[in-house]
């Protein structure tokens, strides 16, 4: 019974959902990158970079910051910076000619 309760621990559920988001995001980014390679469209490359940053990049940055023992403020700052970088890449993909 305690094993079932441990699987529903909020920290574990949050970690698994972040990991799943990163995995799906990397899959979508790989599809965008394939589109870049197929059509030589730089828009798709920047879209792939943006999606990867928004999903796997945030996951990796937060995980490393947690492992390094950073405080909650630093973790939020790192997450915000990586998110802004990913959004800038997506915006560039949408605006580039």
Report on this model:
- The protein has helices at 2-7, 10-39, 42-67, 72-95.
- The chain has 97 residues and is an all-alpha fold.
- Helix 2 packs antiparallel against helix 3 (42-67).
- The longest helix has 30 residues, at 10-39.
- It is 89% helix and 0% strand.
- The radius of gyration is 16 Å and the shape is flat.
- It is built from 4 helices and no strands.
Give a short summary of the structure.
By secondary structure, the chain is an all-alpha fold. The chain has helices at residues 2-7, 10-39, 42-67, 72-95.
**Uncertain runs:** none
Helix content: over 70%
Radius of gyration: 16 Å
Given the structure, what is the number of helices?
4
As a percent range, the share of strand residues is under 5%
Order of helices and strands: HHHH
> Would you report the number of β strands?
0
Give the overall form.
flat
Structural class estimated from helices and strands: mainly alpha
Write the layout of secondary structure elements.
Blueprint: H1 2-7, H2 10-39, H3 42-67, H4 72-95
Please describe the structure with a list of short key phrases separated by commas or semicolons:
single chain, 97 residues, mainly alpha
């Amino acid at each position: 019974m305690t094993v079932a309760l441990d699987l529903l621990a909020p920290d574990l559920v949050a970690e698994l959902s972040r990991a799943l988001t990163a995995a799906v995001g990397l899959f979508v980014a790989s599809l965008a990158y394939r589109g870049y390679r197929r059509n030589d469209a730089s828009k798709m490359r920047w879209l792939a970079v943006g999606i990867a940053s928004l999903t796997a990049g945030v996951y990796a940055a937060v995980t490393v910051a947690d492992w390094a023992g950073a405080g909650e403020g630093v973790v939020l700052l790192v997450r915000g910076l990586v998110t802004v970088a990913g959004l800038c890449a997506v915006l560039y993909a949408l605006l580039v000619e």
